[in-house]
Amino acid sequence: MQHSAQPDISDWPLAADNMQTSGEVTRLLQDWSDGRREALDQLLPLVYDELRRLAHSYLTRERSGHTLQTTALVHEAYLKLIDQRSVNWQNHGQFFAISAQAMRRILIDSARRRTSGKRGSGGPKVSLDEAATISAETARRITTGSRSRFAGIGEN
User: Fold this and answer.
1) Which of 7, 24, 64, 139 keeps 20 to 30 A from 49, CA to CA?
2) pTM
3) Cα separation of 19 and 7, whole Å?
4) Domain limits of the chain?
5) Residues 13, 83, 75, 43, CA torsion sign
6) For 139, how many CA atoms within 13 A lie in the half-sphere containing its CB?
7) How far is CA 129 from CA 70, 140, 150, 152, in A?
8) Rounded to an integer, what distance in angstroms lies between the CA atom of residue 26 and that of residue 76?
9) Under 8 Å CB-to-CB from 95, ≥6 apart: which residues?
10) For residues 62 and 31, what is the distance between their CA atoms, to the nearest angstrom?
11) How far apart are CA 145 and CA 108, in angstroms?
12) Cα separation, 26 vs 34, whole angstroms
């Protein structure tokens, strides 16, 4: 997985020519911060294309064969954003910056889950106390078929 700098979204205009101005987005964000849930319903259509563009930008830098699609990344980030309770939204730039951060975290978590299997995730769990008393035969059985760094436990 490639890690590169976040795309510069500070100068991105709203995508569609007939969209409301960034001032409208800012107003809706502030209304949402004030607890007006209907502002969120009005906001999403205004920012959706930008969120898709941002997600696509991140996904093009991921490994080939990545299973997460642009739309899924946007939706996961959106779910994280609407779960925010204490954000005092200042403007659309802040919204897109926090959106970008949420997308990066989702991609990082996805990569961690994918690579955890390569480190033996899902194998039998043995406490350190148990490992000290385990027999060589049991250690071989636990590690059969894997290249565990603990394959020699109990052997002298």
Assistant:
1) 64
2) 0.61
3) 22
4) 22-119, 123-156
5) negative
6) 19
7) 46, 18, 14, 16
8) 22
9) 25, 29, 47, 81, 89
10) 35
11) 29
12) 12
| Three-state DSSP state, 145 | coil
Q: Take residue 44 and report the two structure tokens written for it.
A: 């999403």
Answer CATH for 22-119 from 1.10.20, 1.20.120, 3.10.450, 1.10.1740: 1.10.1740
Say how many Å lie between the first and final Cα of the chain, rounded: 40
The SS3 assignment for 59 reads helix
> How many other C-beta atoms are found inside a 10 Å radius of the C-beta of residue 51?
25
Report the length, in residues, of the chain: 156
146: three-class secondary structure by DSSP: coil
Q: Which two tokens mark 18?
A: 């007939």
CA distances from 92 to 18, 24, 30, 41, 124 (A): 17, 9, 10, 16, 48
